[in-house]
């Protein structure tokens, strides 16, 4: 296990967290289905990520690895994504022909999202120049400790199949595969608390 330092990000570090995540998700197949040109990614990422998990910065549940090599947005039990903010980005920037598929995606994902109290890992990512060095695992190690202390499940949607084995090593289990139409597909995953 790496000895990388990770810590809770301050609300004032919003730009740093979102910069790291934008780099990390710049090649993500699911995000790039929605924001499919460089201009759309640059224009819409902050609002989309802010809607998906930006509340973590206000809740004190966003994480940063040293030198902003990695970041994560965890929503604690009772805090949800800002669906309206995300839908506004989709409505403005996604190609109109993709909207029916994205609507179906949202409906299907909602069926997997836990109704019981849970921690939601809205986004986690590593700067591509520093991937494969254990920064993501360092954040998962420390943040999952909180889930275990609270005794509640953790939930995420893996938008890149390459990341599923990493999450499985940390105790997440695949619940299914969501792939409407020509959408690249994602894996809803859940982790029971370890006591």
The span between the termini is 20 Å
Helix content: 40-55%
Number of domains: 1
DSSP E strands, number: 7
The helix/strand class is: alpha+beta
Q: What coarse outline follows from CA principal-axis ratios?
A: globular
Radius of gyration: 16 Å
State the CATH superfamily name. Answer: Gcn5-related N-acetyltransferase (GNAT)
Low-confidence stretches: none
- Strand arrangement within the widest β-sheet reads 1-2-3-4-5-7-6
Q: Please outline the major beta sheet.
A: 7 strands, mixed
Q: What is the strand content?
A: 15-25%
CATH fold group: Aminopeptidase
Count of helical regions: 8
Provide mean pLDDT, rounded.
95
Oligomer: single chain
Q: CATH top level?
A: Alpha Beta
* CATH architecture field: 3-Layer(aba) Sandwich
Order of helices and strands: EHHHHEEHHEHEHEE
């Amino acid at each position: 296990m790496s000895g990388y330092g990770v810590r809770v990000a301050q609300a004032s570090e919003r730009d740093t967290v979102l910069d790291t995540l934008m780099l990390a998700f710049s090649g993500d197949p699911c995000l790039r289905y929605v924001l499919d040109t460089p201009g759309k990614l640059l224009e819409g990422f902050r609002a989309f990520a802010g809607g998906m998990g930006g509340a973590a910065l206000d809740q004190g549940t966003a994480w940063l690895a040293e030198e902003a090599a990695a970041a994560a947005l965890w929503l604690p039990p009772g805090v949800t994504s800002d669906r309206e903010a995300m839908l506004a980005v989709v409505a403005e920037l996604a190609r109109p022909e993709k909207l029916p598929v994205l609507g179906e995606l949202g409906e299907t994902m909602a069926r997997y999202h836990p109704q019981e109290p849970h921690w939601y890992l809205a986004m986690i990512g590593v700067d591509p120049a520093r991937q494969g060095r254990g920064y993501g695992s360092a954040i998962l190690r420390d943040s999952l400790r909180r889930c275990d202390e609270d005794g509640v499940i953790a939930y995420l949607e893996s938008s890149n199949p390459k990341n599923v084995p990493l999450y499985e090593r940390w105790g997440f289990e695949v619940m299914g595969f969501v792939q409407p139409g020509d959408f690249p597909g994602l894996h809803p995953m859940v982790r029971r608390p370890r006591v």
